[in-house]
Design goal:
The chain has 458 residues and is α/β, with parallel strands linked by helices. The protein is built from 19 helices and 13 strands. α10 crosses α19 (439-454).
Length: 458
């Protein structure tokens, strides 16, 4: 895939500063049992008494274990001896390994990564920026993707055939992507075409959070991949392909409905295809299915599904006149409630945007600004730490992280980099968790991804 306009690199702030901060706090935690060292790396949990008490209780009961789970993820499939390595030794060895393989390896990290891993990334971003970055690094032999499986698959599709893509943990999947199996989506697409009235074109479009084979379905059938950064642009592009278009939008029902509503598509022009149990026609009445402009897929992100309308009310009362920043994967009812609060003057503004947009809005804010943010905790926490002159608040009274993203750990990353280093020295070692995609799937998925990169700026 050609990368026509590669964005400038955006490495995590100040190199290893955050990793060193975590390391120092962990050492103090060991030296002073019972100390609340988590507060030194966590800027926002004191906004919420419930979360603060939960973290303190974890510190009291589990000590460094609770601390590590918060800032360094959960080791599931990292082998020994790396799995048992103390975190402080892991971080120090990571610094050495990273330097030794720097000419041959690029480490890409998603915004939702835990702090200890994020510190070692060469480039941080959302799935859209990371896909573009992967396509623009032909000189790096290895791409180590600290994200989840569909992101690593996308890197495999867009990068040079001779490059190797590695995911430090194969347990880093995506529950949303798992809700849209390519064979189920293809059955739905065939059914919609069979029901389509004369002159109607059915176009499959899929969120980046999907398997490569589902992206390939879109590539073969005139469709496109989209991300939360360019969803509205992709919808407009697809709807303009002919005079009468029906979209099959997978796999995120909430994002699809939120975007369609912003484009003026009414709820009675949308239906939801229910894949669970495989009911005939996705459980939809034949007439409604044939008439719909947009067919949504019953899928969601468990992290963003956590946010509820009551959270909007709660923080509108606690922080009047704050700006609310919502990721489009949240429930439509949350967007509705935020709009209602804004119209009533209870909050200053509501903005719906991608992780990259949320990051930009906070960066462009002014000292003293208050932002209430509905997206994954690691990103919100990082933004709060990076902008102490602004008040950045996680929009919930419970703590929910992307559990699969947190399968990528410092120990797993160290295992990966040290194994690559041995390979570069000429040792006969098997590289861990190499991601591959069949050539025919790669070809068709690349078509849909290239259409995404060719979309005009939103």
């Amino acid at each position: 895939m050609a990368d026509r306009k590669t964005p400038a690199a955006a490495p995590p702030a100040e190199g290893f500063r955050r990793a060193d901060q975590i390391l120092d706090a962990l050492r103090r935690r060991r030296a002073e049992p019972g100390a609340d060292c988590a507060s030194e790396c966590q800027a926002i949990h004191f906004e919420h008494d419930e979360i603060a008490e939960r973290l303190r209780r974890s510190e009291r009961e589990h000590g460094g274990v609770g601390f590590e789970l918060l800032f360094a993820g959960t080791d599931v499939d990292t082998p020994e001896p790396w799995k048992s390595l103390p975190l402080d030794q892991t971080i120090e060895r990571l610094k050495t390994a990273k330097a030794r393989v720097a000419r041959d390896v690029i480490v890409l990290v998603h915004h939702y990564q835990n702090e200890a891993v994020y510190s070692f990334g060469d480039f941080g971003g959302d799935s859209f920026l990371l896909a573009r970055k992967a396509a623009s690094q032909p000189d790096r032999r290895y791409i180590v993707f600290c994200g989840v499986h569909f992101m690593a698959e996308t890197a495999r599709v867009v990068c040079h055939p001779d490059q190797v893509v590695i995911l430090p943990s194969l347990g880093a999947g995506c529950s949303m992507a798992d809700m849209a199996k390519p064979e189920d989506a293809e059955d739905a697409f065939d059914a919609l075409r069979s029901l389509a009235r004369p002159g109607r074109t059915v176009i499959p479009i899929t969120y980046m959070n999907s398997e490569a084979a589902l992206k390939a379905l879109c590539g073969r059938n005139g469709g496109v991949v989209f991300t939360s950064s360019n969803a509205e642009t992709a919808f407009r592009w697809a709807l303009a392909r002919s005079g009468d278009v029906q979209l099959l939008c997978t796999p995120d029902e909430y994002l699809g409905r939120n975007v369609a509503r912003r484009l003026g598509i009414r709820d009675d022009e949308m239906v939801t295809w229910n894949w669970m149990g495989h009911p005939p026609l996705g459980g939809c009445p034949r007439e409604a299915l044939a008439a719909a402009r947009v067919v949504l897929w019953r899928g969601l992100c468990h992290v963003h599904d956590m946010f509820e309308p009551r959270h909007v009310e709660l923080f509108a009362e606690r922080l009047p006149r704050a700006t609310f920043l919502l990721h489009p994967e949240v429930r439509p009812a949350v967007v509705e409630e935020a709009g209602r609060q804004a119209r009533a003057g209870a909050i200053a503004e509501v903005r719906l945007g991608s992780t990259e947009a949320i990051k930009k809005w906070i960066e462009q804010g002014n000292p003293g600004d208050v932002f209430v943010v509905a997206t994954e905790w690691n990103l919100v926490n990082r933004l709060a730490l990076d902008h102490p002159d602004r008040r950045v608040v996680f929009m919930a009274d419970v703590l929910c992280k992307c559990s699969t993203m947190n399968r990528i750990t410092p120990r797993g990353l160290l295992w990966t980099l040290e194994t690559i280093e041995r390979k570069l020295r000429g040792e006969e070692v098997a590289l861990p968790n190499v991601i591959d995609v069949p050539m025919d799937v790669r070809r068709d998925a690349n078509v849909a991804l290239q259409r995404m990169l060719d979309l005009p700026p939103g």
